[in-house]
Amino acid sequence: MTGVPEARTAGIRATATQRSQAKEVRRLALLSAAAGLFAENGFSRVSLEDLGAAAGVSGPAVYRHFPGKQAVLGELLLSVSRDLLDGGLRVAAETSDPKDALRALVQFQVDFALTHPDVIRVQDRDFGSLTDADQAEVRSLQRSYVETWVEVLARIHPDSDISGLRVRAHAAFGLINSTPHSVRHHGRKIAAKTARPILEQMAYSALTADALIADEQDDDGEGR
Hints:
Elements (H helix, E strand, L loop, with lengths): L2 H39 L6 H8 L13 H25 L4 H18 L1 H10 L5 H25 L5 H24 L6 H29 L4
Helix pairs in contact: 1-2, 1-3, 1-5, 3-4, 3-6, 4-6, 4-7, 4-8, 5-7, 6-7, 7-8
């Protein structure tokens, strides 16, 4: 008889897990829908009913996952910022060679830019619609992500000052992020397989330009 309550308890746990998973799927669907709608129409022109319809739920059902539209925007940009930081730290730690680490970071950022163009547009246009607290947290996460790049760049350019390395990192982000943004903005699409190698090569070359020149001078004994 002891098996009956145990089986019932297991069934209850399984049901709870399924409900939790279904709720997470709907939450992610809402965030995905929000990215597309905010990018296309702007945060201020999108209603909760619009979000619900795009995600396949009623407008009021959105409140089961988020307290309001501003919270959706906050979670969208915060979750992406956390993912970028976590991914950047992981990528940078996978190799001890700084140039290999930088190449991996560039590939990581290019992949993000090509797969999340809507989020880039939302960040550029609607960052000011976040709450003050969310703005501060997003900035903090993004600063930490930049510093991940700076730490790698400092090993490649040991004689460069930190502020200059931050300029390099931000310039690379601008290069990588602007291409899918501008192409999407003008109503055309570019194949990832076409854009990816171009973006990776341009960004990596720009970030390592001085180091590459120094390597050539070491090899030949004089500059080219």
